[in-house]
Amino acid sequence: MSSTGSPVSNDDDLLALDRQVCFGLAVASRSVIAFYRPILEPLGLTHPQYLVMLALWQGAPLKFKDLAAQLRLDPATLTPIVRRLERDELIERGRLEGDDRSFTLSPTEKGAALRQQALAVPSTVIERLGLPVEQLLALRDGLTDLIAAVDRAT
Amino acid sequence: MSSTGSPVSNDDDLLALDRQVCFGLAVASRSVIAFYRPILEPLGLTHPQYLVMLALWQGAPLKFKDLAAQLRLDPATLTPIVRRLERDELIERGRLEGDDRSFTLSPTEKGAALRQQALAVPSTVIERLGLPVEQLLALRDGLTDLIAAVDRAT
DNA sequence: TCCATCTTGTTTGTACACAAACGATAGTGT
DNA sequence: ACACTATCGTTTGTGTACAAACAAGATGGA
User: Fold this and answer.
1) CB neighbours of B36 closer than 8 A, spacing ≥ 6?
2) Are residues B4 and B66 part of one domain?
C-alpha cells in the first residue's frame, strides 16, 4: 500500500517488528525474574537484592556509587534496596575516610553465609530451564550488543 | 576445587554466567525502555501504555482478559494502566452482553488518531539504535525461545 | 430454588524504577 | 575566610509489577 514492495519496510511491518522486539524483551525479563522468584524465596531475596549480593560477594567492600554503576541502577532505586538488605542484616555500611557523604557496603557474616545457598541457584535455574548453555551464551552476547548499541546512541 | 576441570562447570563459573544472563536481560530491558522514553514522551505514553495501544490498534475491541493474556500481564497490573489511558481519553470501555463482570476496550477517536504519530516510533528507534535488522530478528528469536523455555518449565 | 463454586476484575500491600528536587559535604577560586 | 560550584546519597511523586484477599456476577448441581 505505502511501501515499495520490499519486505519489512513499510510502517506496519516495522510496527509489528518493534512490538516483537521491545515487547519480547520486556516479557522475557519479567518471565525470567518470575522464574527466579520461587528459587530465591527460600533465601529471602528478591531478584534485585540477589544482584546486589552477587556484586558484593564478588568484591567487597564496594562504594555505594560504584555498586549503582555496576548494576546500572539509579541511586534513588538502589537506596531502598540497600535499606532492606541492611534491615535483614545481610549487608552493612562501612565509613570512608576523607568523604563523609560516601560510604561502602559489605556482606555481614550472615550475608556471607548466604552465599553457600546461593551457589545452588544458577544450576537449579539452568537445569529447570532446560536450555543448552551455548544458547544462553549466544543470548548473552546478543543482549550485550544491544546494551552497547543503546549506550552508544544515548 | 570442586569441579572436574571442564570449563563452565563449577559453581563459581555458573554464578558468573547466571549473573551475565539474568542481569543482562534485566539491564537490556530497562535500557531499551529508557531508550523509548524520550521517543514516547511526545505521544504522552509510557512503555506499557504503548504496548496496550499497539495491541488495541491491531485489533479492537478486545476483552480485558484477552488483553492481559496477550501482554502477559497480571490483571492487577493492567487495571491501573487501563485507568490512566481512559483518564487520558485514549481508550474506552464497551459493555459485553451476557456477562456483566467482563468488558471490552477500544481506542477512542483520539486514541485512533495517535496511531499516526506512533507509526514513526519504530523507524526512529531502529535508526537511532543503528543495529542491523537481522540482528534484531535474531535477538527476537532468542528471546522467544527463552520465553518458551520458561513457559515449559513453569 | 438454593447454595456451593468458579470467574472476573479491583483493591491492598510490598517492592522496584526513574525524574526532579533536596540537604549535606567537598572542592575551588578569590 | 568566603562564596561558588560540584558531588553524593536521600526524599518525593508517579508509574509499573505481582501476590493475596476481595466483591460481584455467573454457573452448576441437589
Assistant:
1) A22, B47, B50, B121, B125
2) no
